[in-house]
Write a structure and sequence with these properties.
- The chain is built from three helices and no strands.
- With about 80 residues, the protein is an all-alpha fold.
- The radius of gyration is 15 Å and the shape is flat.
């Protein structure tokens, strides 16, 4: 299934937001490697989520959150979600 122009724009907008997040993180912490920055951002999100929940609950929920994010990403890039 090919993407509509709207879906392409939405995907590009989300990618732009991701670029801003990585760029802000890079400017703050000085790491130039995108993979390291993304790993650190995800770890920071896990810390934030863990602070709000018990660690056991946070780990289980975060795994579900990551699975759901991957499902959304794959569907959006294939044109399955609007």
């Amino acid at each position: 299934m090919s993407l509509t122009k709207r879906q392409q724009k939405e995907n590009n907008d989300r990618a732009d937001l991701g670029d801003k997040i990585i760029g802000t993180y890079m400017a703050e912490y000085g790491e130039s490697d995108d993979d390291i920055n993304i790993t650190d951002i995800v770890a920071d999100l896990m810390h934030s989520h863990g602070r709000r929940k018990s660690l056991t609950v946070a780990n289980a929920q975060f795994n579900d959150i990551v699975r759901m994010a991957r499902t959304h990403f794959e569907a959006e890039w294939k044109g399955g979600l609007t």
